[in-house]
Design brief:
- β5 and β6 form a beta hairpin.
- The protein has about 425 residues and is mostly helical.
- α7 runs parallel beside α8.
- It is built from 18 helices and 6 strands.
- The strands form 2 sheets. It has a 3-stranded antiparallel β-sheet. The chain has a 3-stranded antiparallel β-sheet with strand order 4-5-6.
- The structure holds acetyl coenzyme *A.
């Protein structure tokens, strides 16, 4: 919808730029014709003022600390729904009816097994491979196993690939874990729900019965809901950019996983836990806070700050509550890491530096403690994030492919390298 126009004047010339409004959130200035008119690009490294697409999936108000999936507040979905319901909502735009939910759960459940040859593919990795390295490779490799759903112009192929990715990611992530600890792969079990099935594939062994605790399963399911989508973050933008060339969805999600791996994005929960371990005791917190504030020290408080949230991350609040529930069930409320985390949060929230820069704890600050308590090693944290974010990536990829105005993503640049110069033969150099 076009509201009104903005005017840009360069020298003696001026152009009107359309202003577009969304349902909620800031308006955008449509600059798509600017280069054609003015022969100038806009410059926005890090995309801090750039809306790269139109989307109906997720809304964030970073100043107010609001996160909505398809209009529904994250708090309501995380506390009242389950992960597969969130997947349905993100993919189709509406909450499912009971019958739709049952069909969707069955559909996902029936796709959880991976091609048997995938297990041989796994055995090519070193045992000490990082699970994210294994996940990037294995998810990309799905394209080599599922040729029958690669035609992105066919809606049925798109649907089958989407369901395959949501269903098989837990199996692949669990296989990556089992492989690194030298235990046999555990096949999915169709009478279990999505999250119980994943926990069983990670923690059961063929020689013993395995039972999941409902509070712990619920906690992990909630972590999946909280991580399911987050509009145009780095990995989602990566998936969209990869997909804009017409690449198949398995390749696009592998690209998203690669981007998520970095410590400034999905790797932050691993880094946050490592930092809490390094701090060790509440007495050492002031030293680390001082380092975080020191301009000459590259150290940052991991799990603090967010590109979009300049208020409390709404997911962090739910995560904090979930952490307490998990530690209570496990009888480890005195966990020293939790004590360090609570004290660090208290100190940072009252510190002038953090207040002024609007640095609040983000979701990663508490999720690491919870995942550790659930039994996952730190190296698995980002892989669990990838598992949960797969549905968001797929929903965003699908939305992009189904948008008739979609074209290949191709940013431009401000070139600051050498101007044109002539080649000098080797014997005349130096
Ligand atoms: N500790 C100390 N200072 C910080 C921190 C931090 N965690 N985060 C930002 N700052 C400071 C910066 O030094 C900068 O100060 P300056 O203005 O004096 O130069 C200012 O706050 C703004 O920081 P930027 O890096 O410019 O903000 P940006 O929006 O680009 O970065 C980011 C956001 C990457 C998340 C950053 O806050 C950070 O590195 N945090 C730690 C890593 C982390 O927790 N990442 C998880 C992100 S959430 C997710 O992926 C699910």
């Amino acid at each position: 919808m076009t509201n009104t126009t903005a005017k840009i004047s360069i020298g003696n010339e001026a152009w009107d730029l359309p202003i577009k409004s969304g349902t909620i959130g800031p308006d955008v200035i449509d600059i798509s014709k600017l280069y054609g008119n003015s022969k100038m690009f806009t410059f926005d490294p890090g995309f801090t003022s750039t809306a790269a697409c139109e989307s109906k999936i997720t809304y964030i108000d970073g100043d107010e600390g609001v996160l909505l999936y398809r209009g529904y507040p994250i708090e309501q979905l995380a506390l009242q729904g389950d992960f597969l319901e969130t997947c349905y909502l993100l993919l189709y735009g509406e909450l499912p009816t009971p019958a739709e939910k049952q069909n969707f759960d069955t559909l996902v459940t029936r796709h959880t097994m991976v091609h048997e040859q995938m297990s041989r593919f796994f055995s090519g990795f070193r045992r000490d491979a990082h699970p994210m390295a294994v996940c990037v490779a294995s998810v990309g490799a799905l394209a080599a196993f599922y040729h029958d759903s690669l035609d992105i112009t066919d809606p049925h192929h798109r649907l089958v690939s989407s369901i395959r990715l949501i269903a098989k990611l837990p199996t692949i992530v669990a296989m990556a874990y089992k492989y690194t600890i030298g235990q046999p792969f555990v096949y999915p079990k169709n009478d279990l729900d999505y999250t119980s099935n994943f926990l069983r594939m990670c923690f059961s062994v063929p020689c013993e019965d395995y039972k999941t605790d409902p509070v712990l399963t619920r906690a992990l399911d909630r972590i999946f809901i909280l991580h399911a989508d987050h509009e145009q973050n780095a990995s989602t933008s990566t998936v969209r950019l990869a997909g804009s060339s017409g690449a198949n969805p398995f390749a696009c999600i592998a690209a998203g996983i690669a981007c998520l791996w970095g410590p400034a994005h999905g790797g932050a929960n691993e880094a946050a836990l490592a930092m809490l371990q390094e701090i060790g005791t509440p007495e050492r917190i002031p030293e680390f806070v001082r380092r975080a504030k020191d301009k000459n020290d590259p150290f940052r408080l991991m799990g603090f700050g967010h590109r979009v949230y300049k208020n409390y991350d709404p997911r962090a609040k739910i995560m904090q509550q979930t952490t307490h529930e998990v530690l209570k069930v496990l009888g480890v409320q005195d966990d020293p890491l939790l004590q360090v985390a609570i004290e660090l949060e208290r100190i940072a929230l009252h510190d002038e530096y953090f207040i002024e820069k609007k640095l609040y704890p983000n979701i990663d600050f508490y999720s690491g403690i919870t995942l550790k308590a659930l039994g996952f090693p730190t190296s698995m944290f980002t892989a669990l994030f990838a598992l949960a974010r797969t549905v968001g990536w797929i929903a965003q990829w699908k939305e992009m492919i189904e948008d008739p105005s979609q074209k290949i993503g191709r940013p431009r640049q401000l070139y600051t390298g050498a101007a044109r110069r002539d080649y000098v033969s080797l014997d005349k150099r130096g």
